[in-house]
Every structure is written in structure tokens, then in C-alpha cells.
């Protein structure tokens, strides 16, 4: 149920074409890369989410926005959601998506990343990368004249975090002031969630086993951003203390792609961090459960929680497409083709 404050906020919201966050973001982000959430300002994160909500509810207004644009997706790792949400999102705005499976041919192996960039930019308007090394993405971005989007590296998963906070806004009206708790591995997803939460004024608590905490560079950056936005970023090692008063409890696999050789070692370390009904009961009564998926059922989360009434995991998956459509529109200057933005 939306709170009174939420309803008032929605009623007074500016029409999307007059929204200063969206107009500023459209001017600043056209032609830019998105390798990290830290590449975006708070206003730009807000703009992507506002536009994402609008695109979700008015898809026909954007159906020709990326007419004749070409996007290539080059993925070194498996994907269901990211690949399909980018491909469907792009083609529903009039563009054409090309998928290149790099799982057996890592980028940089056959020819240098810079040479790949110098070729690919001659044919396409946008490069979307899923890689092991984060440097592969930043190197492609440094050498490409067309925008590069990070669709997951070992260090960050920014498109996931944008969709997740869009989902929180949808559920609670606003992410500002919410208590968001991440339980599990301090990994790529955790990093992007910390930065996004800080950008949106969300209090972020992360509970990891000792030795699996998020990267110090991300923690420092997230805390700097949080201070500007009046929220806090806490690191704990007790999952039960971390979920107290949480509005959202989020987890991810404890063995990310590329770390499979650590599975046996990690299983007992992460067992106390499983999100189950006992842990969820310590959160607020109206708390939601979130997961980026794919989930290892009954490992990091039980079936009862994943399939239970508090779970919003498939809303998150759906919103991958809407949030990414907003991002694509901004990076490719697509709003200039939308009638609403031309009146
Ligand atoms: N959440 C996510 O990125 O899913 P995929 O690995 O299936 O793309
Ligand atoms: N942390 C996980 C996320 C998968 C979407 C991984 O990197 O495998």
C-alpha cells in the first residue's frame, strides 16, 4: 500500500519531458559510457529510474526512439536475463541487436581489445559487454568512439542495480530513507547496489563473512556519496543484526561466475548467511526479499523465501528491461526521436 507521502510525491511529479533530472541527464550522458554506477551522478541515477518508470508504462511512445540503431552484445559469461532484456528492450525501440558469444574466446585473446573497439565502432552505435576482468570493459570504453555498457564484470553489475532500485521505488514509492540490507558475498552485485543505494539516499547495510567483504575502494566511494545524500553505508558480519529494521533483504549466489573452483571452500562459510524464514522474520513485517537471479535454491536462499509472498525477484527481472531501455535512450540520444520530448 502506498503511503500518503508517496501519493503526494507522485501527484506533484513533473511531466517526464519537463523533468530537470531527465533533461540534464539526456544532455550529459549522450555518447557516454556506463562502466560503473560511479560514472553517474545522483541526479543521473534518478533520471534513469524516472525514465524507466515512464518507459514501462508508455512503451509505445518509445517504439521508434532507436530506429535503425545497431547494438552488439559481447558476452564472456553465460546470461539469461541480461541478454534477453537488452535484446528485447533494444528491438522494441526500433533498433537491432547482435549477440556475440565470447564464452570460448575471451576478449583480447584473438586480437587486442583496442583493435576490437576500432573495428566494432565502425558498424554499431553501442557495445554491451559481459566480462571477467573489469579492465576489459574500461579498456574497450577508452578505445571506442561509441558508448560501452557494463553488463556485468567481476567488479560491478550496474544495470542490475538500476533495475533493483527501480523495483524498490515501484514497491515503496521512493528508495530514499529505506533500509536496504545485502547479505552474502561482497561481490559485483553488492558493489553496484552499495553505490546506487548511496546515490538515492538509501541506508545500505552489508553483512558478509570475514574475508568476503566488499572492495575497500567501493566502500569508500559509497560512503562519500552517502554522506552527500544523508544516508549511511554499514559493513557487518552478523546477518541477524544486519536485517533488523530492514525494508529490503537482498542476497546473491555465494559462488559467482569465475569462482566455481572455490565452491567447496565457500559452502560452509556462507551457510550462516542463508536467507531463510527465520532471518526474514527479523526484518520489518512489510520487508521485501530480492535476488538478482539465477538463485541456487536452498543454498543462499530457501525455496520458502524465494517463492514466498515477500519475494519481488521476478519484478526485478522484468525491470531489467525497462531500466536498460531508459539507459539506452539517454546514452544514444534517443529522446530526440520521441514526440513528447519534441513539443
Ligand atoms: N541477473 C542477471 O544478470 O542474470 P543473467 O546472468 O541471467 O543475465
Ligand atoms: N554475482 C553473480 C551475479 C550473476 C547475475 C555472478 O557474477 O555470477
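-> sequence recovered:
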Amino acid at each position: 500500500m502506498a503511503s500518503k507521502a508517496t501519493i503526494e510525491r507522485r501527484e506533484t511529479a513533473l511531466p517526464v519531458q519537463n523533468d530537470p533530472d531527465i533533461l540534464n541527464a539526456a544532455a550529459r550522458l549522450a555518447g557516454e559510457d556506463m562502466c560503473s554506477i560511479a560514472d553517474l551522478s545522483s541526479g543521473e541515477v534518478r533520471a534513469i529510474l524516472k525514465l524507466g518508470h515512464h518507459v514501462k508504462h508508455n512503451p509505445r511512445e518509445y517504439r521508434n526512439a532507436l530506429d535503425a540503431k545497431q547494438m552488439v552484445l559481447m558476452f564472456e559469461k553465460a546470461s539469461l536475463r541480461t541478454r534477453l532484456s537488452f535484446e528485447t528492450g533494444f528491438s522494441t525501440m526500433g533498433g537491432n541487436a547482435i549477440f556475440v558469444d565470447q564464452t570460448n574466446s575471451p576478449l583480447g585473446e584473438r586480437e587486442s581489445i583496442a583493435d576490437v573497439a576500432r573495428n566494432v565502432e565502425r558498424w554499431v552505435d553501442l557495445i554491451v559487454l559481459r566480462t571477467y576482468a573489469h579492465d576489459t570493459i574500461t579498456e574497450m570504453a577508452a578505445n571506442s568512439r561509441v558508448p560501452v555498457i557494463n553488463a556485468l564484470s567481476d567488479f560491478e553489475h550496474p544495470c542490475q542495480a538500476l533495475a533493483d532500485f527501480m523495483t524498490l521505488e515501484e514497491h515503496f514509492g521512493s528508495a530514499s530513507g529505506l533500509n536496504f540490507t545485502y547479505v552474502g558475498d561482497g561481490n559485483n552485485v553488492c558493489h553496484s547496489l552499495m553505490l546506487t543505494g548511496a546515490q538515492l539516499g538509501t541506508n545500505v547495510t552489508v553483512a558478509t563473512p570475514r574475508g568476503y567483504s566488499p572492495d575497500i575502494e567501493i566502500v569508500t566511494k559509497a560512503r562519500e556519496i552517502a554522506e552527500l545524500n544523508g544516508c549511511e553505508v554499514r559493513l557487518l558480519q552478523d546477518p541477524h543484526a544486519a536485517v533488523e529494521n530492514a525494508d529490503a533483504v537482498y542476497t546473491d549466489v555465494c559462488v559467482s561466475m569465475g569462482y566455481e573452483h572455490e565452491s567447496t571452500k565457500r559452502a560452509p562459510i556462507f551457510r550462516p548467511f542463508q536467507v531463510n524464514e527465520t532471518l526474514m522474520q527479523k526484518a520489518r513485517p512489510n520487508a521485501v526479499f530480492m535476488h538478482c537471479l539465477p538463485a541456487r535454491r536452498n543454498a543462499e536462499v530457501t525455496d520458502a523465501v524465494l517463492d514466498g509472498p515477500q519475494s519481488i525477484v521476478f519484478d526485478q527481472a522484468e525491470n531489467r528491461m525497462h531500466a536498460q531501455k531508459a539507459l539506452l535512450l539517454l546514452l544514444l540520444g534517443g529522446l530526440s526521436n520521441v514526440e513528447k520530448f519534441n513539443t
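The pocket of phosphoric acid mono(formamide)ester (ligand 1) is lined by residues 79-82, 152, 160, 292-294 (CB under 6 Å).
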